[in-house]
Amino acid sequence: MDTRPAEAPDAPPPPRRPAAEVVRRQLGAAGRALVFPAVAAVLAFAVGAVVILATGQDVGAAYSALFRGGFGSAGAWGRTLLNATPLIFTGLAVALPFRAGLFNIGGEGQLYLGAIAAVWVATTLGGPAPLVVIAAIVAAGLAGFLWGAIPGALKGLGAHEVITTIMLNFIAINLVTWLALNPLAGASATPGTGSVADPVRLARLGAGLGRAHWGLLLGLVAAVIAYLVIWRTARGFAIRAVGLAPEAARYAGIPVAVNGLLAIALGGLFAGIGGGIEVLGVYGRVSIPFVANLGFNGIGVALLGRNHPAGVVLGAIFFGGLAAGAQEMQFAADVPLDLADVLLAVVLLFVTATGIAELLIGRRARALVDGTTLGRGLAG
Amino acid sequence: MRSWKALLAATLMLALAACGGGGTAEEPADDAPAAEGSEAAPSEAAGGEGASDVRAAMVTDVGGLGDNSFNDSAYAGLQRAEEELGISIEVLESGAPTDYVNNLTQLAESGFSPVFAVGFLMTDAVNEVAPQFPETQFALIDSVAEATNVANLLFEEQQGSYLAGVVAGLMTQQDTEFTTAEAATVGFLGGQESPLIRKFEAGYAAGVQSVCPDCQILVEYAGTTPEAFNDPARGQEIAIAQNDQGADIIYHASGATGNGLFEAATDRGFFAIGVDSDQAAIVPDAPILTSMLKRVDNAVFASVEAALEGSFPAGETITYGLEDEGVDLAEFGEFSDIVPQEVVDAVEEARTGIVDGTVEVPTEPAA
Fold it and tell me: Which residues contact A296 (CB under 8 A, 6 or more apart)?
């Protein structure tokens, strides 16, 4: 299947491939890309069942509560989507740099900086509310972009991005904590910044979806933009080339360092916007302690979503649904909250472990299930 | 290609087998819920006898159950209410800050009342949820919310700390296995520098000075961020530094950071004073002279009792102090032999003075 050369996007479609055939191939590629995460999820639930049994609970009751709490009603969907919204952004923050062969562990810090930048702009800037919201989100993205550019630049100097992004998390989190407790401290009873005025908050979606807010739609737009950037622009082609074969890219005249820097900074941009949207949509302020692990869970979301924007959206909904369902499971079936973490951990274990299996089988099988095939299929 | 499909099929088979295994193994587990059901039955019966259909619930903050601190303490109070008052109870843990609103909403929608929100981290969530359920009684621990159906439960930590200060000020002047009479120096180890923890410091310092005006009080905070409550290494560092400067009794209000103090006290043989719960029982190897108790359990129990009597303090802010056993000092336990009677008497005297108002305890340290 890889013997045909990939056509340029604007090349006339060859007669052998009518539109229906193209769509069928695309769906097929998407389906194949979903196979391994789906298998991993099934396996994880089997392992989870054993854990539930071991703690002496009723598996049927637990899992029906889990499903009901995550997807069983409009309210449940609302909780799921509320949880999923920031994870779409932090998932993209990992997935996009991954296309350049870079592993961005810095989503947590980038999200924190985005959150504080959004609060700062939203609480100090006057003017019409919609413009303030836009300015706050732009500021959040810019903060994340710049913070992501640092490990990107250091990578060019030979510092490994995994180390630098991890270390920059500590700096960002402590910096944000200091900012929230000192120059931006509010008068609230609990430590943290002042609150963003109501008109500057993101509205809720309504439709019985509880606290889910318009940030979700921004997340979906971000995923589409990430897809277009990566697979429909020359810059995206350069980033992917750098990720797939840096030496070949260099030989073809594609600057490796610049594209790597840009990829990880774009990842930071998404994480930063995610932080800003979490503040404008949910909390209205940065309290100390602030939300934890949204950035790190983004790594899991991206892994589960095979580093493809569409997969990231699905992965985020899966993560969000599990977290929402775990609450219901705890309430209705007395299963401890920690079981959801166990399930997530096992899912990720199997997702990455099947990755190992693919490596053993060979590159061709691996390419089949890899998001790159899906992307190439959609682009062709 | 074919081998890949074979592997996939095998994986699926394995998954199915695992599922099947789960299904068949389900039967023995049926005992467990049944046993639990029979366990729950008496309490329901007791509920019938006590003519109480009150269902009380609590939401933990992200610290969750098993924190050896206020979440566990609140739960203990709720469990006591279940046993003694015959109510039914529910506890929901929060995995993330977004869960606060969800959990409070779920409990209110399900008819639980009162609903306890444990910890100041939930202030914003209570402010959001409580107005939506005016019929539900909420109680917020360690903070103050605006809604009229919320009882705000605070604690006079400075009062209990004052008693700890009295003990420290007197014992540092004694010659014992752990203290020397020469350097009259005591220490205070705070967690995150904040108004709450400064209350502990203020009461402690006042207590020390009331019995030992010449005592030197070394004060150090582990940091200015919440991490300062979870930094045992920093706690140990500070404890050793204070001990080097002559402090032979150190009181901490620093959460898990205090574990570093206990480590240093064990190694070097000086006294530590614990906080929140009777830490001598939790860390039996460390020389913990006593602990300042913050009885969240008593506050929770009292609130449930008030709800049963129809006198739930909705819209009010209640501060639990020495008078109503909201704060207290733990028994000296294994060290009761080396604590002279005059120290015990001085503590009782201070307690009486605080309760009847003749002793006023500051909430902010003297500058």
Answer: A105, A107, A108
Least confident of A327-331, B67-71, B345-349: B67-71
Interface of B with A in 262-321 (CB under 8 A): none
Question: Do the beta carbons of residue B170 and residue B181 sit within 8 Å?
Answer: no
A204, burial (CB in 10 Å: exposed 0-12, middle 13-18, buried 19+): middle
| B302, B286 contact by CB (below 8 A) | no
Would you state the pLDDT for residue A378? 36
A342 CB within 8 Å of a chain B CB: no
Q: Which amino acid is at A10?
A: D
Of the candidates B15, B30, B97, the beta carbon closest to that of A43 is on: B15
Confidence of residue B52 (pLDDT cuts 50, 70, 90): low
Cα–Cα distance measured from residue B175 to residue B164, given in angstroms and rounded to the nearest whole number: 18
In B156-206, DSSP assigns E strands to 185-192
Would you state the pLDDT for residue B32? 38
What tokens were used for B222?
């582990």
Q: Which domains does chain B have, with CATH numbers?
A: 53-155+295-326 (3.40.50.2300), 157-293+337-356 (3.40.50.2300)
- Please report, as a single letter, which amino acid is at residue A233: T
Nearest residue to A265 (alpha-carbon basis) of A78, A106, A72, A66: A106
Ranges in chain A, pLDDT < 50: 1-9, 11, 360-362, 364-366, 368-369, 371-380
What letter represents residue A65's amino acid? A
| A50:B1 CB<8 A | no
User: By the CB < 8 Å criterion, does B62 face chain A?
Assistant: yes
Type and span of the H or E element at A11: none
Which of the 8 DSSP states describes residue B68?
A: S
DSSP sequence for B152-198: EEEE-HHHHHHHHHHHHHHHTTS--SS--SSS-EEEEEEEE-SHHHH
CA distance B123 to chain A (A): 7
Place of tokens 């500051």: B362
Q: Which domains does chain A have, with CATH numbers?
A: 56-335 (1.10.3470)
pTM attached to this predicted model: 0.77
Task: Kindly provide the ipTM of the predicted complex, given to two decimals.
Answer: 0.73
pLDDT digits (tens, 9 = 90+) for B137-168: 999 998 999 899 999 999 999 999 999 999 99
What are the tokens at A191?
A: 């430590």
Nearest to B121 among A190, A357, A364 (CB): A190
